[in-house]
Specification:
- The chain has 360 residues and is of the alpha+beta class.
- Helices cover 22% and strands 39% of the residues.
- It has helices spanning 4-28, 53-61, 101-110, 153-162, 211-222, 311-314, 319-326, and strands at 43-46, 66-72, 79-82, 92-97, 114-120, 126-132, 140-147, 166-172, 185-192, 198-205, 226-233, 245-253, 264-268, 272-273, 277-285, 289-296, 300-310, 334-343, 347-357.
- A seven-stranded mixed beta sheet has the order 1-3-2-18-19-17-14, sandwiched between helices.
- A hairpin with a 3-residue loop joins strand 18 and strand 19.
- It is globular and about 55 Å long.
Length: 360
């Protein structure tokens, strides 16, 4: 019949059109698999120093970013901010110099601010970044612990632990220098509520081989001690010499016998997996590596990516541009650390450390 062929053609085209829409829908409907890659989250880098750091942090916080990490080991200091994994109220920040901490600590806590990270710049004062992430006042009470040198650290930490405090943040490593120039070490410790008395355990590794320190940490967690803090430093505290000491601070409720979450202490080079679990801390160690702590966990890994810097860039000359261009472009994962060390010849390496959740 006349027109039958054209009707069939139109019917065939309609069927193909429906199939095409269906196929397109399969590709455009958001997938719900547990193994989907998370979306990128905005990241900014700032080399702002003492004068402009608080202003810069609050400017970026108004855009929805949060402080993620502060570099450890560079001549200058770079701070990374990243959008949170899920939408959250804007944070607020205060930056306080080490010499003002004792006077301002109680007031900041009352206003809802809690210490977040330490900002240490070679040749300058140490500063603490305080963050207020919500309207509720934090439940913790904070104390500033001073110690003259590493040998005095166990006694100072134990005294605070007896009052229920746990070490949380190294503000300043002790410096032994000419009379009048030496500085005592500073650590911020927190206590929840009234706080039960705690027992402290300090592991001090002084060998390039960290096997002994790693065993000591493992033995302590088997006895119920939990991880509190990891740091490295040179013998005299100078930022210009290699970091030959590793400090791991642990604590537990006094008189309680329990097995705490296992903690692994390892030494790694600059690229690859820094542990298959929850990251606890990382820092430069000696001249050729980094030491890091982590707790084993399924579907979690800590990944390290190196960024090569010239001597000028490591001193903040053009560093912001370098990081915008050469830093890893994958911002899907949570930034948890920035550790740096010198490398041949007259250059530096900044390791960008991320906590990666693999599905689920």
């Amino acid at each position: 019949m006349p027109g039958m062929g054209s009707q069939r053609s139109r019917r065939s085209l309609s069927i193909l059109h429906i199939l095409a829409i269906g196929v397109a829908a399969l590709w455009t409907v958001p997938a719900t698999s547990a193994f989907d890659a998370p979306a990128d989250r905005a990241v900014i880098w700032t080399t702002a120093g003492e004068a402009g750091l608080e202003r810069e942090l609050n400017t970026q916080a108004a855009r929805g970013l949060r402080v993620a990490a502060v570099s450890d080991g560079l001549p200058c200091t770079v701070t990374a901010m990243q959008a949170p994994e899920r939408p959250a109220p804007a944070a607020a920040y205060r930056v306080v110099a080490d010499r003002d901490l004792q006077a301002r600590l109680a007031q900041l806590s009352e206003e809802g601010f809690a210490p977040r990270l330490a900002h240490r710049r070679a040749g300058g004062r140490a500063h603490v970044i305080f963050e207020r992430a919500g309207a509720d006042r934090p439940a913790q009470t904070w104390r500033l612990i001073e110690f003259a040198d590493v040998e005095a650290l166990p006694a100072a930490i134990s005294a605070a632990a007896a009052d229920g405090f746990r070490a949380r943040l190294l503000v300043r490593y002790p410096l032994k220098s000419w009379p009048g120039l030496s500085e005592r070490g500073l650590i911020l410790a927190s206590r929840d509520g009234a706080g039960r008395p705690r027992e402290a355990h300090v592991v001090i590794g002084q060998s390039r081989d960290i096997a002994g320190a790693a065993r000591a940490v493992s033995d302590a967690t088997a006895k119920g001690f939990s991880f509190d803090l990891l740091a490295t430093g040179s013998r005299d505290g100078s930022t210009q010499t290699r970091r030959e000491r590793v400090l791991v601070l642990l604590s537990k409720d006094a008189g309680v016998s329990a097995v705490a979450t296992a903690v692994r202490l390892e030494k790694s080079t600059s690229f690859g997996t820094f542990g298959s679990g929850v990251p606890l801390g990382a820092a430069p160690f000696w001249d050729d590596s980094y030491v890091h702590a982590w707790s084993p966990a399924e579907r979690r890994q800590t990944w390290a990516s190196p960024i090569r810097l010239s001597a000028d860039e490591a001193s903040c000359l053009g560093l912001s541009l370098k990081l915008r261009v050469d830093a890893p472009g994958d911002h899907a994962w949570t930034i948890v650390g920035l550790a740096a060390r010198k490398v041949p010849v007259n250059a530096w390496e900044l390791v960008y450390i991320t906590d990666q959740r693999l599905g689920g």
